[in-house]
Design a protein that fits this description.
19% helix, alpha/beta, 7-stranded mixed beta sheet, 12 helices, 6-stranded mixed beta sheet
Amino acid sequence: MAGTETTRRRFLFTSGAAVAGTSAAWALPGQRHSGTPSSAGPPQDAAAPSPTPPGVRRAAPYGTTTLETSARLTGSGGYRRITSGPGWPLVVRPELAAAGSGRQDRRTALACFVQFTDLHVADVQSPLRSEFLRAGSPGSWRGQEALSVAGAVSLVEEVNALRGGPHTERPPAFVMSTGDNIDNHSLVELQWFLTLMSGGRITPNTGDPASYEGVQNSGLPLYWHPDAGLRDQDKARDLPRIPGYLEAAIRPVTSPGLRIPWYSTPGNHDDLPGGCLAPQDPVLADYITGARKLFSVPDADVAAFAKVLRTGDDPKSAVLKEILGRNAARARTVSADERRRMFTPHEYVSAHLDPAFAGAGPIGHGYTENHLDGEQMYYTFAVAEGVIDTTYRSGHFEGSLGTEQLQWLERTLAAHSTVHHDADGRPVRNAGADDAHILVFSHHHSPSMTRRPDSARTEETRHDGEELIALLSRFPNVVAWINGHSHVNHIRPHAHPTAARSFWEVNTASHVDYPQHARIIELADNHDGTLSLFTTLIESAAPHRADFGDLSAVGLASLYRELSYNAPGLAAAGMSGGVHEVMAGTPTDRNTELLVHRA
């Protein structure tokens, strides 16, 4: 890219919300240099995409972005197929800074990386899952969950096939996963996630090594039975019968692993059973590894459990434990499996440090041996240090920040800002700072962060999303806050009366639910006092249209997408041109160029 100014910044990427809220920080070296600004790639060599194996279907969107083509629902009826639709256009958003003419010809590429979020890699046979909630709400259980490993591996393949960002041509430097990497705080799920990210063979099966023991062959019409002729409630809305589906779902899958470094910021599902239950509770800990599983409970129990999940008024999971005890005679026998056990923060770090999961690096993926002591697993990579903790450790799906970590974030941002403002608006100068462009990562987005007291940390005041926004707006170097949790694509401008103190919040949808997106994020200097942040959505490498007769790993990944697009009620509401704009977002939430003033 052409340009007239020198590249003078380094980039600080602060990431929050890990095991009960671990954070990471990443900085891309961009030392001053003379001459024409460069769009050279990242410090490490970017691997070329692997060729397509002979005989494997590789239709759209393999190696493409949603600028070129996007999955669309087509047809009518209870079950609708997916077709390859036109791409979504780039939408320029000038709410925070004007879009100067000619910027495309002079901009300098500064950074490119990929965001994963809410993969929800799931052990669907775990006794601690609460599929029975579906009796009260059809959307409380997902028919596609048994294919989460195949679907996530296909997303890894897509990133490996990308040659560069569509707007800067810079190869992605790393992948950041912003939480809910796994579904149920289970050690076996963590091992599957680490393997799919770093490469290796995964057998997505627990319990009986030779057969599936979950709700999808239970004989209960509450759940979709793909292999059987049972007229269940999903076949009543035209979901197909696919003989061999469950056998294929538990077959080994081989992940190539990401060919670029990766980091993650776990969310509430990584740290808490079900994303909202009390961790390390002895009753729940015994149940998750045990040989009894509830497939259904009375409607009154469904309603009682759903209520406390909504309100968060049961930090000790008393209602669920009462339901498990009261319905013990209804529980079915399954194969016990110790691998399903919950893990401690120490075990979480140890797993990341295991050389078997090194992949493209770095060793530990941000964690070091120093993080094995205590529960403050704060990590950095390349430059800077720090943490944001957004998970309620006592158990709840909402997030927050504690005072100690809010103060830590303030110190960290100040250390990388030559000028910022104190809480009263007075300028504070730090001539020795490296003056970084700052991107903040967390799992929770601003609306999901509350001041709810955390019974596991009663000594700390909790702080909500509005307080975090107020803090970030004191630092003109903050470009964006990037997060997940909502399972929705949505981009919010956080404007400030002083334009340079404005920033963007980029919220990306889940990969387990419709629309199964990730993002390529690129940062560029326009050399006119503004920066452009590009947010291009990508899909997995699997073909858009599923083939019910193809139960290969690629075929399962296509089914995984198509089934998610046929979630109960989804096709009947909010569709515009085959796109559900509540979850996929409007065009202004998808492929965008976000303008912001350069501090």
